[in-house]
Amino acid sequence: MSVDTARQKIQQLMPQLRRDLEDLVRIQSVSADPARAGEVERSAEATRDLFVAEGFDARIVRSHDGAPPAVIGEKRGPEGAPTVLLYAHHDVQPENDHAEWDSAPWEPTERDGRLYARGAADDKAGIAAHLAAIRAHGDDLPVTVRLFIEGEEEVGSETLPALLKAHLDELSADVIVIADSANWDIGVPALTTSLRGLVRADVEVRTLDHAVHSGMWGGVVPDALIALSRLISTLHDDAGNVAIEGLHSGPAAEIVYPEERLRTESGIADGVSFIGDGSAVARLWTKPSLSIIGLDAPKVDGASNTLVPVARAKVSLRVAPGDSATSALECLTRHVTSHAPWGAQVTVTPVDTGEATRIDATGPAYDAARDAFAEAWDGVAPVDMGVGGSIPFIAEFLDAFPQASVLVTGVEDPDTRAHGANEGLHLAEFERVCVAETLLLEKLGSA
Known about the structure:
Elements: H1 3-25, H2 37-52, E1 59-61, E2 70-75, E3 83-89, E4 109-111, E5 114-116, H3 124-137, E6 144-150, H4 160-166, H5 168-171, E7 175-182, E8 190-195, E9 197-206, E10 212-213, H6 214-217, H7 224-233, H8 259-266, H9 280-286, E11 289-296, E12 306-307, E13 310-319, H10 325-338, E14 345-354, E15 357-358, H11 364-376, E16 383-387, H12 393-400, E17 405-412, E18 424-426, H13 427-446
Parallel strand pairs: 3-6, 3-7, 7-17, 8-16
Antiparallel strand pairs: 1-2, 2-6, 4-5, 5-18, 8-15, 9-13, 9-14, 10-12, 11-13
Helix pairs in contact: 1-3, 1-13, 3-13, 4-12, 11-13
């Protein structure tokens, strides 16, 4: 199939594909919300039905009763052809405050070439991209296609290892295409070759058995908020680099991330400086970062004149590729316990972890992907990029299928705003993604 043929087929398919995507987006499949568990089920059923209609032997599976639903399936290609596993996830993040959205989060709305809604990009567009490639080839698939559409990615993929183990033979493949990442820019495709891992932990500081009068005891007894503040201040050096000993850092690709673009895309406030040393992509992709993402402390309004006895912070530590979550947690724990001010009692409670990923993106499957992407983007070669965020399940796939080539692709761009208000899918780029995956299947079948 030529690129012109692929592009023509996708253009013809796009109106129905968009209708199918919008129908999926209207389902509020928020896996983090128990009240919407029925919506997650409905999303799995809708996803299954879309692929059954294309000739897949697709069904819903789960690791145990009550576990989130995943969709697996298969459509056979020619005898002896390679097997390609297509991954995406049908669950989405909570929409949070509707007032922050410019349009209703569950009603897909087009503005200026983007389709806005929760899940319009992350990751229901990944499902739609797989569907587009399948429809473009029809009953002449050049490869055997297997399907894994997960229903709990946004809550940590807790049952994924059990699902992979239970369905290992049904999911085994020569090439795995994971459509859950991003492209470098509008008009510039990318393959994701590294992702940071994650350690989240609650750090509690206690200085008193109970609250006491700040006038009677202030100046002698430290309060927990001051102690926690001083402890947090030790986590970075003056330049903003993470100051925890033992964490790993690695080299990054020689890609320039212009400061003007970085400021625009990050939304950093006027006058605020960036933190850390080294190139922007190294700080974002291959060095650790640490953020305080929550605090337990009395509210300012209504606060009493007492010394606070205990305070907590939720720490989000992004782990560089080449490091392990276990080692990073040990380093974090050692740091906060050894830097406790004034002998304050410090307790670290792990919340969750995820491993970093580094992919050796060489070999025939990666060559095929690069050729397909360059053709779909009119000669623009794809960038090998890292991602600062974490997709721990990729490490699970690498462990479960060590013989497979894992291609991490995606539909997002720097202004997608996944997980935030006004999440949006760039429709022209989405069409290129669909063309690229159509060509990729063709090239893998003839490799």
